[in-house]
Hints:
This protein is of the alpha/beta class. It has helices spanning 14-29, 53-69, 82-87, 90-94, 110-118, 166-170, 178-190, 222-231, 250-258, 275-281, 287-298, 319-332, 359-382, 445-451, and strands at residues 5-10, 33-34, 43-48, 76-81, 98-102, 124-126, 148-155, 174-175, 195-200, 237-241, 265-267, 305-312, 336-341, 388-396, 403-408, 413-417, 426-434, 439-443.
Amino acid sequence: MKKTSVYIETFGCQMNVADTERASTGLRRAGYELTGEAEEADVVLLNTCSIRARAEAKVYSRVGEVKHKGRRSGQLIGVMGCVAQLEGEAVFDHAPSVGLVAGTQATDRLPALIERARAGEKKVLDLGEREAGEIWEVSPVERHSPYVAFVPIIEGCNKFCSYCIVPFSRGRERSRPAAEVIDEVKRLKDAGFSEVHLLGQNVNSYRPRPPVGLENFDGATPFSKLLRAVAATGMERIKFTTSFPRDFHHDIVAAIDENPNLCNWVHLPAQSGNDRVLRQMRRGHKVADYLERIRTIKNARRRIALTSDMIVGFPGETAEEVMDTVSLVEQCQYDSLYIFKYSPRARTPAAAMSDTISEEEKTERFERVEEAQKRIQKTLYSSYLGEVVNVLVERRSTRSELDLMGHSTCHKIVNFRGSDALIGRTVDVRITEVKSNSLYGEAAQSLLKAFC
């Protein structure tokens, strides 16, 4: 008997990718067949993002495309993830062709939900919380990469920044047991993975109760203890994202300095360089607090790459205040920066604020911050010329069939000439050329001779 085929399309952040991996694992275990073709699938699931209005609109547009192009009679279309959690039953009104809506914590119940829908139940809806005792389990087969694995350690958010929908879409913070995280990393190492990314909306807010598994590790916070515990597994490379400034303790930097396999990269979103705007955003920190943490990072024994997020055009932000953001960018010297134009999200406090800044002005402010970052980034990237960086080779470059592509320990994209035999290996690459958002180099001659 032919298996029911399921296609999952993922929008948004790394946490959504991790959710898809978990969902795929459960579906395959339940007897479903995963496919890469939406048009031919019996079931199409869209794992959605709602961080900005445009991302949400894209989902409904994609539902229409799937419905139009689908070739399967009786094809079931489901919406899961953040849009599902926020919109709930309203998804059925926006998109009548959708037959299943599953929230962010319904991942493990998808097989049963699909069966209900395929048995004839109309408008299957599940916005419930994770069931007690659920374990985050992902098969190596379902991982987005055979070399890099995402390991969520904390879900949800308690910060309630005034512009952010995450506390509503993901719920309150829930930390995974430390022993469970450590065991997962050990299994990934044994399965041949070279790098893990510890994930969370606020990864350094990690607080498991009880802290079983961390008793033998030093650290000023549960997160810095976890970093040392994960480093002790011997996993070759360990990264983490995203950090929240208020919970970023200097001991995190100490842990990075102590353990070479904790990669030299920190993503620490600032969102604004102006104290009044930060208060309106309810970020819980001032510019001076943020800069204190940046100094700790910059004073580390190792060179730690620093990246961040900024929002321009927040309600009430003045032209002078956006220049404070430019000033902060210049002081911090970010290796890269994600800049966003403010987008109001329903149910957030900021959505009720008077937003009188035009799209044209938001674009101008975006370009002002971007121009400063481009100057800084060009200088920073140029400083890598002649330097040797360690690269995990992930695949062939999309721009040249002759080149390989990977990420350095400082999380920069690096391309270089080499054979397929190097894919999946960590390679020392000497940087010979600088691009706007990547580095180019040449691998050690001894490696090229051995694998070419």
